[in-house]
Design a protein that fits this description.
The structure holds two protein chains of two kinds.
Chain A lengths: L1 E15 L3 E8 L3 E7 L18 E8 L5 E10 L2 H4 L2 H17 L7 H14 L6 H15 L21 E5 L4 E4 L6 E2 L2 H11 L3 H5 L7 H16 L4 H4 L10
Parallel strand pairs in A: 3-5
Antiparallel strand pairs in A: 1-2, 1-4, 2-3, 4-5, 6-7, 6-8
Chain B lengths: L4 H11 L6 H13 L2 H17 L1 E2 L6 E2 L16 E5 L2 H10 L5 E4 L17 H10 L4 E4 L5 H14 L5 E4 L15 H9 L6
Parallel strand pairs in B: 3-4, 3-5, 5-6
Antiparallel strand pairs in B: 1-2
The chains are: A alpha+beta, B alpha/beta.
The structure holds zinc ion (2 copies).
Amino acid sequence: MSAYKTKAIVLRTYKLGEADRIIVLASKDNGKIRTVAKGIRKTTSRISGRLEPLSEVSLQLWKGKGDLQTINQVETINSFRCVKTDLERLNTGLAMAEAIDQLLQDENPQEDMYTMFSKALQWLDNKTHDPSLVLAGFYLKLLTLEGTSPTATSCSICNLGYNEVDLTYFDYKKGGTICSGCYEGEPISQNAVTAIRAMLNGGLGKILSISPHPCSREIEHFATISMETHLDRRLKSMRTGKIYLSTTS
Amino acid sequence: MLYVPSVQALIDELERLPGIGPKSAQRIAYYLLIINKDDANRLAKSIRDVKERVRFCVRCFNISEDELCQICSDPSRESGTICVVEEPRDVVAIERTKLFKGSYHVLGGALSPLDGIGPDQIKIKELLERVKNETIQEVIVSTNPNLEGEATSMYLAKLLSPLEVSVTRIASGLPVGGDLEYADEITLGRAIEGRRRID
Ligand SMILES: [Zn+2]
Ligand SMILES: [Zn+2]
């Protein structure tokens, strides 16, 4: 049994009993951790506002005998206000959290992944950045970290480079882009291929500065499909929960 | 098996109730074993009664014994204001304030993308229909002041913006009787944003 301090981002929370909540965190020093916050649902709780999903906090935790660690102290590092007050940004942030929840292992430090998540939330918190592009860039970087990023420089079937053939199809299972001659997978625009290639080669900042980007939804679509294929599951927040679309239907 | 089958079955059922663990289930089961038959039957009857009689109000989805709930069928309630809440429990909480005279709309939850709860999973379409068909001047969004409740309120504001209705959000801020210095910065920030003129 011991107490320790770490930075963490709240991934999600579950109600527990009458007034408590289980808080699932992506921590900097200890991977994914499950904690319990006692009395947090009472209106007199002093920490409930700090432990909402997508908040970055610094906390002191107590690790006892059970699976659940107890939260002793919480301070806010960044509550990402811009993300939380805009439906599309909020939905995007939750889609990021959902992927991290799947990829981050329990109590296994993956500092790179934490840093990437924290940075992506900062990008998303910037009103000039297109949320679809931030999400796509984040998913592509996560896949790179996992060693499973798709290619956008050559055909995944015949291996010819983008200078020699037109890359007009995409299939993550095959490895990424596919040329018009090999003709397999889902059609993809040249603009999207160029943007994905730039994102994979460290040019995300530059892509984000193009606002609005003409094919941001398309890029988001291919990045999401790639992430879902890698995780071997659907991302709920991208499927059932698009809470910002078709509001007048 | 430690108990005779009928007692074990009772313990199993009790354990399925929210907030009741194995220990509490045993304690309640023992209590039910020793109380007299009339008391036990009354409990059994009231469980049966709610299951037979209670349904949801067709207008506001509050708990009701009739087609319309008590609030919807009360002619003294103002018809131009709807207070939107997540659960029937919240109707009871707001009724306790005795400050609201309009009608309610119970969504049956809040938007939660991570749980797969989108607009179609809660009673949002029904609210939109009410605002279109009844003469409503104000919709007061009283969902919980957490991420899901805020998401729901932003969504409703956007959804209702083309209609001629004012959409308001209940204020959030400091608990009455508390000390300012103990408030977290998020709550205090909201309290400052939602400040009002003292008249
Ligand atoms: Zn090819
Ligand atoms: Zn009613």
